[in-house]
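#onboarding

Welcome to the new folks! Below is a worked example of what a typical request in this channel looks like: someone posts a single protein sequence, and someone else replies with the predicted structure as tokens. Don't worry about understanding the tokens yet, we'll cover that in week two.

Example request:
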Amino acid sequence: MPLTDNLAHKNEEEIIQKEFEALLNDYRNTNHVPKIELITKAFNFANAAHKGIKRRSGEPYIMHPLAVARIAVSEIGLGSTSICCALLHDVVEDTDYTVEDLSNLFGPKIAQIVDGLTKISGGVFAQKASEQAENFRKLLLTMSEDIRVILIKIADRLHNMRTLGSMPLAKQFKIAGETQYIYAPLAHRLGLFAIKTELEDLSFKFEHPETYKEIEAKLAVDEEERNLFYNEFSKPINKKLVEMGYEFTLLARVKSIYSISRKMAKRNIPFEEVYDIMADRIIFKPREDMNEKDQCWMLYSAVTALYKPHPVRIRDWVSTPKANGYEALHVTVMGPQGKWVEVQIRSERMNEIAEKGLAAHWKYKLGENDESELEKWLKSIKEWLEHPETNAIDFLDSFKLNLFAAEIFVFTPKGDIITIAQGATALDFAFSLHTELGIHCIGAKVNHKLVPLSYKLNSGDQVEILTSKKQSPQYEWIEYVTTAHAKEALRTLFKNEDKVLMRQGQALIRELLIANNLEFQNENLVKLLNHYSLTRRNELYLQAGKGVLDLEETIKSFNKAQSKNIFVKYLKNPFGNSADSGKEKLTVPIDSKIDRKKSFKITDESIGIIFNFAKCCHPIPGDDVLGYVDETETIHIHKRQCKVADKLKTNYGERIVSAEWATHKLDLFVEELEITGIDRKGILIEILKVITEGYGIDIKKMTIESEAGVFKGRFNVLVRDTDDINNLSNSINKIKEVNSAQRIQE
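Example response:
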């Protein structure tokens, strides 16, 4: 071995050893029973197994398992078994060692957890979705047996997100989308608030780097002012708690960049109007002679004696903890300079549970009967898996429904309390009691008043379900329910009916094609799929069988298109983009498959040939976008924050490609502008003058209404890119009476 290689190898070994010592130091700083020998054995085994293998970043592969182990112990609070599993989690996947080998060397428990981790090593869904769906079920079963499987997986995902910058762009979008869609909600459901926040922020950073940098820069500019305000606000609280004789810590919590962005988008406001960027957290050491709940309320009284509380913004999760174990008392008070500030009151125990979730909950368990809502949820996973959804995509959607932590409490006619997800309907409640009750449900009485099946329940409602033996489920019921259990039950019932309708729809399409002198072949079926924005043939057959498609007219149009000598596709851009709906965009046959590793430039010439724009989110030049390659090797362009794109990134990650704009602004796009402000005579004329004269922009449609001196208007305008719409918004915002002019994002 040359001298330089020798030195490099020696240096690598020193770095690895240093990281391992850091892991042991993290472990020694916990209260776990020390098992250094076992951890060292696992490290040496993993280090030897991964020897010579590098990560994409160029560092030795073993650095990844070491980093995952450090997250598991220091950020989640797990012990020696989990550390060993984190160190070994990629051995079975990436080397010749088997689960049986690990069982012989480290025992069945470590082998079982590593096996659970191996089953989803390629992501929640890799290329073979149906196989991955089965693997994901196995993971959930293992998780319900031993929660450490998913906790280590979350640690693994967190480190992957922290090092995502070394991956190709398309891979970044896939992993970030999957993280946002499934892992961040999982972390939230398991009470890992700090990790959930970081996963959301990192996903947002890779999907919207420019917006992330903008908000980060604005936070940095305001930092000094925020710190001065916080010191002024917290000084009286600090003094009061000292007088009360408490040991405590005061922390300033700054809202995450992702949360700020969501609030801006949801409320359609600029950064400057997000007022709750900072909160004050009180973490106190409770006195032994009083219970924690009483002490939280004592501190609440102390704070509200100093600052007036907001009458409706009090959150009591001390009396009724959240389903993920979170306990705290939140109150929003009026601080100096007329600013609202949220104060969060937690004991040391509550704070540890808030940061480390279920792992901390177990540490504080009082006895065998002390079962949290979270543990009940884990038990419910097993029951839910008894009737699994065979379709991989539906399966993931159903599981995601189970991640929502918000719950309400409702009563049966006899006064029994039933816990159900927030947003649940009367029909959901019927299915939660018994599937047969749901199937034959015709309505409900809520607080003795008759309500429809779609009625959304509120906490404290008393619900009586009304049934009829003649009743049978209708397809629209899927829209009435929000819980996974009800959706699964209905899907199972509809499956057999769907098969009959699919056969009828297929026969109808064949018949109409032949009647129009067209062949029942792939080319014509792809045209129909594109025209109706569908991705699967069975979906097309089902819609046809239900009679909801205008098949006769659409298929007739194929002949008209052929008579005009249109080569492959007559159908207008199936995902719709241009305001000029009369302009036909033609597609040409693609001889070779799309290279999914390269980054694509969206040019004027390629729009409608290689690229189509998604109807679901209406991207325009300047938006952060990505591409999805369909079965015909056409790339569909979506906004990166699009909800449909989130599912595509999670379920069809291998079809995601990187895309960027290189258009010369030949097309016009319809965008919606929302304007609010103080109503006065002539304000509408002034706004129209800015739009039409100042920028020469055409208006396709507008609605405006005024009430109590305030107006709100929506304007559909034709623009070429995001610069057009942003410049227009900025100019309208300069009108004195205008409060806000913002683009409405899908």
